[in-house]
Amino acid sequence: MPSLHHKALRYAFTRLYPLPRGEGRIIERTPLGRLRFPEQTMQVTTRDGVVLEILPNDYIGRIIYLTGRFDPAVTELLVRLARPGDRLLDIGANIGSVSATLLRRVPGTRVVAVEPVARLFRMLTRNLAPYGDRAGAICAAVSDRRGTGAMRLDGRNSGASSLVQAGGMHGAAADGDHEVVAMLTPDDLLAASGLDGVDLIKIDVEGHEATILAAMMPLIRAHRPRAILFEHRGDPQGAPASGAPAEAPGSRLAAAGYRLYGIRRGMAGAFTSLARAVVPLSSLPARQRARLTDHLALRADLTLERALGHARDGDDGAET
């Protein structure tokens, strides 16, 4: 059982903490980021009423325990963009907090969550089990090739674990800090998912996003998902990082008919509405674009305002 001290901290953050976003970074920069729990796993209920099994001594689990949520800016944006019956590919799902929140809050949605790390995948399947056949899970990494690779595991932050390509495979596989994983191409993933189309995509894979987006462009062009939320460190419209595909992900998405937005997190977005925290990348200078890590690609025939307010407007947010 969590101590009374831990329970009091959880109550303070979930009931009294004033910031709507950005609390995770604040927690990790204070002594709260060094809290240790005797339990290896724990079951908690989030602010959205989602029951999750967490790792309380992991970065993600500790923040969920203390605040009742994780990555609220991305999660809330995805929920606001979703419509009943939508189909989501959640690539890099971890323990499934985003997937489970969407399933609980948006009726009729279907989610296929993808997570390559075996321990996290087992927790993911348990966390999605209450949603029955609306939820599926695949234990693999997504890349531009099929086969096997290795994940570099981060013992303090499971969300920072990253894929090691085949070139480093043999040394990595012999190291206890790495885990051999299956790799699927986007076409493999869609075939394995059982989905007949895709409306929303979320990608959070610690530096492999540009490679996945490059490989996913045929799928994106064929199925025209309404929105793609992805993490990217650096300007997605600028020069790619070393080892990334030659063309920046923002350029590929723009050519496919998407508008690019940045998502302000932390103190920059803490006191603003969600709509104001999502800003067109074209309105920002390159230096500011490079500081953002979370991005939205919205189909160019949609406006952000109407896409976020579709439940009120009763339409699909398309421009007329």
What's a concise summary of this model?
The protein is α/β, with parallel strands linked by helices. The chain has helices at residues 4-16, 23-28, 59-67, 72-81, 97-105, 118-128, 169-173, 186-193, 209-223, 249-255, 267-270, 274-277, 286-291, 304-308, 310-313, and strands at residues 42-45, 51-54, 87-91, 110-114, 135-138, 141-142, 147-152, 162-164, 178-184, 200-203, 227-231, 258-263, 278-280, 294-299. It has 15 helices and 14 strands.
Keywords:
320 residues; alpha/beta; Rossmann fold; 2 domains; eight-stranded mixed β-sheet; four-stranded mixed β-sheet; 14 strands; globular
Present the secondary structure layout.
Blueprint: H1 4-16, H2 23-28, E1 42-45, E2 51-54, H3 59-67, H4 72-81, E3 87-91, H5 97-105, E4 110-114, H6 118-128, E5 135-138, E6 141-142, E7 147-152, E8 162-164, H7 169-173, E9 178-184, H8 186-193, E10 200-203, H9 209-223, E11 227-231, H10 249-255, E12 258-263, H11 267-270, H12 274-277, E13 278-280, H13 286-291, E14 294-299, H14 304-308, H15 310-313
Parallel strand pairs: 3-4, 3-10, 4-5, 6-9, 10-11
Antiparallel strand pairs: 1-2, 7-8, 7-9, 11-14, 12-13, 12-14
Helix pairs in contact: 4-5
